[in-house]
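LAB NOTEBOOK - FOLDING QUEUE
OPERATOR: T.R.
BATCH SIZE: 2
PURPOSE: Compare the predicted structure-token outputs for two unrelated chains run back to back under identical settings.
PRIORITY: normal
REVIEWER: second-year student, initials M.K.

ITEM 1
FIELD SEQUENCE / FIELD STRUCTURE:
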Amino acid sequence: MPESLPSSTPLLVIGAGVHGLSTAWHAAQNGTDVLVVDKTDVAAGASGIACGVIRNNYFQPAMQELMAACVEVWESDPVAFHYHGSGYIALGPPAQEEDLVAVHERQQQIGYPSELITGEQAVEAHMRSLYSDWRAPGLTVCLHEHAGGYAFNRESMLGLADKARAAGARIETGVEVTGFEFDGSGAATKVHTDKGTIDVEQVVVAVGPWIASLWEMLGLPDHLDVRQPDGTTNENLPMWTYWYLQEGEVDVDPSKFVTAEGKPSPVLHVDSDQPLRDDAARLITSGPWGVYFKPDRTTVQGGAQPLTVGPEFEVDPYPTGSVEPGFPDMWSAALSHCLERFEGCREKFRAVRSGGVGAFTVDNFPVLDYMRPNVFVAADSNHGYKMIAVGREIARVLQGEHSSLLHPFRYERFQTGDLHPVSHSPYPWS
């Protein structure tokens, strides 16, 4: 065994993305001896190529409360986390008014700063006060979150790793987990890696889209029955479904994507039922569509509704991103549809290593729970990057505390029917 890898540890964290690093940071702050292993490197997976959007626009009360806590962590050290608190604006057609009104009401109840604008004329006036060239018609509801925004993905994870190390955690990369040994109670006693075996007291699994392989190593089912809130049961559903996240960027100077006051633009998320045409008036789609976009370091970046891949996907090597052939036309047309400044941006579209693939749970929401007596699994269902406070809550649970923020995401909900409500958004994570 390499000298750098200890033979035992009180807490082994598997995965050096946002959940693993955040857990290591907070657990080490609590005085726990922590070892983090990752088979590649810090931020080598989904956390390192995430679009970086940080928002509270969730229809589900439990997600809203958890995301409010996450925003607090992002705001605690914006320099280290490369965080930009520019805000987040969600706009929608009449079909989404009820949802966004409910989201806003709950945000007010938990003290999350936002304002709601309804009615097409009022929405247009609000947006034109921010952008003089705003021109998207038919939007009747606007939820403007004054907290949240975006962060630069890889840089923020390196900053989080620095915090974990400063608190005393060890991070060892190039170490791949290959299996577990369990005692009679089902608790993990040893974790096998390609660099040797580690005796463990507690384990946290936080591996993003690689979760299916670790789930299998833990002896957990790849299909399950899900009880619905009405008492019916959907049988033998796949635990995991993979989605490609369609994202890209246009080579537009982000200094051009500012508000009328010259401030960096909030993240914009637009769902529309209006016909979408490109700058040559060619019809792109006549059905509902949705996009999101934000300033990046040197460009404008964003995406649209993801592609369903299926219950099986090979994540090694981790994909560099894949989009439908029509995505560049659709996304560029949507930018121009919203803001005149993006007219002609299609020729500036660039496919970049962004988004990748996500492993969604059977109900598209995270599983954050003990799945063995001493093995806590953070399966984020691709909500992960923005959820930087999950690791703080896991660290509390590891000390025997109860986390009201994590409780709604327990695995037991599939058996009890205590599922999260579903919105009218076209996005599976909303």
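ITEM 2
FIELD SEQUENCE / FIELD STRUCTURE:
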Amino acid sequence: MEKILLTRSGYEKLVRELDLLSRVERPQLVQELLEAAQEGGEKNPDFLSALVQRQRLDRRIQQLQQTLANAEVLVGSNLPPNRVRFNSLVWVRNLSSGREREFKLVSTIEANAALGHLSTSSPLGRALLGRRLGERVEVHTPSGLKFYQILEIRMDKG
């Protein structure tokens, strides 16, 4: 399987989630299953609900284990610090609207638009990678061509 790039904070977040699910939530769910089984087993709606929840939880635990097994925490880059790279914080201006926004370039797994975490495989993320302060980038999006200017580049410490 292909390596999955993660930031240190993204990796640690997944480790904490796996620990919580494995050590706290799953044992509680197993206990609920045992109690519901004693009260009617497969005829008990609480048992069936707990069984579905356990299956969902087991899938998430397996997904996290697989992701972490293939994860690579990227701490450095072959790009100089004055260029946009993985884990960069990039302040950009949309040249059409004038709107400014900061993005953190992360992996697809860590991407979260609401937090400003932009995937390096997204159209804007790909366009920004390797660029310098002041450069303008052209981005082909589903809603058309957009132009951005890079206002600031910093490395995230987390």
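REVIEWER COMMENT (ITEM 2): Residues 4-73 form a domain with the Helix Hairpins fold (CATH 1.10.287.180).
FOLLOW-UP: none requested
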